[in-house]
Please model this.
Amino acid sequence: MEALLGFFISDAWAQAAPAPQGGGLGFFLPMIVLIGLMYFLMIRPQQKRQKELRQMIDALAAGNEVVTGGGILGKVTDVGEQFLTVEISDGVRVKIQKHSVAAVLPKDTIRNI
Model:
């Protein structure tokens, strides 16, 4: 009986898992393609929008008409390092952070509303 049992055990060791075939490139190539796809579809457009927003904020000057993130329309009267003074009505001025500006409007947009 022991000889029979030894025969089966030695067969089991002889049938060890085969060595992996091919290189690891076949495994990593789809992952590299997915990372590249994510970069071009998600990360790059977001960086482009941030760059455009930064340029818009840096180019703000007195006389520009802006819309804030809260939807307030106004005309920039003073530009500081971190804050803007925006006139939202005749004689009504508010101080806002530069980064709360959502868009710069074309000239005389507020007058035509």
User: Anything to note?
Assistant: The beta strands are 65-68, 73-79, 83-89, 92-97, 101-105. The domain at 61-105 is CATH 2.30.30.100 (SH3 type barrels.). Residues 65 and 108 are 8 Å apart (CA to CA).
